[in-house]
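Section 3.1: Structural characterization of target chains.
Under the original work plan, the team committed to producing a structural model for every single-chain target entering the pipeline before any wet-lab resources were allocated. The record below documents one such target. The sequence was received from the expression subgroup and is listed exactly as submitted; it comprises 99 residues.
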Amino acid sequence: MVLAKVVGTVVSTHKEQSLDGAKFLLLQQVDLEGKNSGGFIVAVDAVDAGVGEYVLYATGSSARQTKRTDKKPCDTVVMAIVDQWEVRGTTKYNKNEQT
């Protein structure tokens, strides 16, 4: 699993038929401080995440193990919305404390 922030959406009107109805999110990988730390990746959304939220995503064969992505041609899936993370006893992010 990788920590990322949803920075946008991707719309595709022509796609593999098994992906009809799938929502695609544009993700930016972040470090433990919540700062950008990697490139961008497009993922199928399995949890109804939204722009601005921090999420966990999986890649490879793990991406096809959710109900929404089972047996579908996807390599990356958002499978969790992050409520909070802490590092060495210090809370780095808490969704309920954001404005």
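The chain has a mean pLDDT of 91.
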